[in-house]
Design a protein that fits this description.
Strand content: under 5%
Structural class: mainly alpha
Low-confidence stretches: none
Mean pLDDT: 82
Number of strands: 0
Helix content: 55-70%
Number of helices: 6
Order of helices and strands: HHHHHH
Number of domains: 1
């Protein structure tokens, strides 16, 4: 989100420097590549890690339910995103349609909106770091491991 905020500041400065109403700005679309790469790769790592955590750490009978919980967290994220956009429009908007999320993209302040998303992402990361330090994976019980070795099978083979 920080990359998106920086790119938007650059785009706004170009839009203000161009005189008249131009439908297109003299700026390369390839400036979007870093932010799309960062967001896309971040989501790929988050989704695979979250799904792996749900599948490997849940009891055998709840693996399907944990996958459903994974998809539910995605949908809740989309609802929170829509709610955030509505709140920002109400708080920063004016009667003439201006504000951070204005009707005209060249008069809006998307850089500030992306800055807000950057701050929320940092807060989210701090909360994640606290939870990651707090979480301690359970070690398999030694007795169960020994019993499996005596029977010729391990717990991993039974899953």
């Amino acid at each position: 989100m920080a990359a998106a905020s920086l790119f938007e500041r650059k785009r706004l400065s170009v839009a203000k420097s161009v005189s008249g109403n131009h439908a297109t700005l003299p700026i390369s679309v390839f400036l979007l590549i870093p932010q799309f790469f960062l967001v896309g790769s971040g989501e790929a790592f988050i989704y695979t890690g979250q799904l792996d955590f749900f599948i490997t750490r849940s009891p055998k009978g709840m693996k399907t339910m944990s996958t459903g919980l994974f998809l539910t967290t995605l949908s809740l994220g989309f609802f929170v995103s829509s709610f955030l956009v509505s709140v920002v429009k109400k708080v920063t908007g004016t009667r003439d349609g201006q504000g951070w999320l204005a009707d005209n993209i060249n008069k809006s302040r998307l850089d500030l909106f992306y800055g807000l998303l950057t701050i929320l992402s940092v807060v989210n990361f701090v909360a994640f770091a606290v939870c990651a330090v707090w979480f301690k994976p359970k070690k398999p019980k030694q007795a169960a491991m020994q019993m499996g070795a005596m029977n010729g099978s391990t717990a991993e083979e039974k899953c």
